[in-house]
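Minutes, project check-in
Item: structure for the 170-residue chain
Input as provided by the requester:
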Amino acid sequence: MASLHFQATIEINNANPYVLITPAQAYSLKSNWRKAMPVIVQINGRPEKPWHINMMPKGDGSFYLYLHGDVRKASGTVVGDTVMVDVSFDESYEGGPQHRMPPWFREALQNNTKARSAWNNLSPSRHKEILRYFSWLKSEEAQKRNVEKAIFVLSGNEGRFMGRDWKDGE
């Protein structure tokens, strides 16, 4: 597993403390990575258990390694401090939805081949968005209402679901 150990100064970007990761450093962690990069990080050897953070691309090959308040507190650091940074690509990272498909949605998809096909053709980010939304639904009434809307638009019908217009299952 590639890792970096280097000295840097904590800077600030729109009230967000960060350490800049150069293009060469980012490439050594994970070559040709262009989106948010999952890493584990310690500042001055703290916190004891490395913190999981997503480095954010700056657009020129470099990344912002934003430092969560818990990391700064554990390391006793503030903006302007020169620190030792240990960062590694998070090999435990798994892309895709972070929320499981609820049984009531899975069953509805299994019973509608057209909706299931449209679901399978959606992008991973759309899956993630919908499953995250479904995870917030608590009442049976809300679940029923939303699964009906989802199946309706995924079946190719025009309609609104989750704040957007749907047509032909997308």
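Outcome recorded: The chain has two domains: 3-89, 103-166.
No further action items on this chain.
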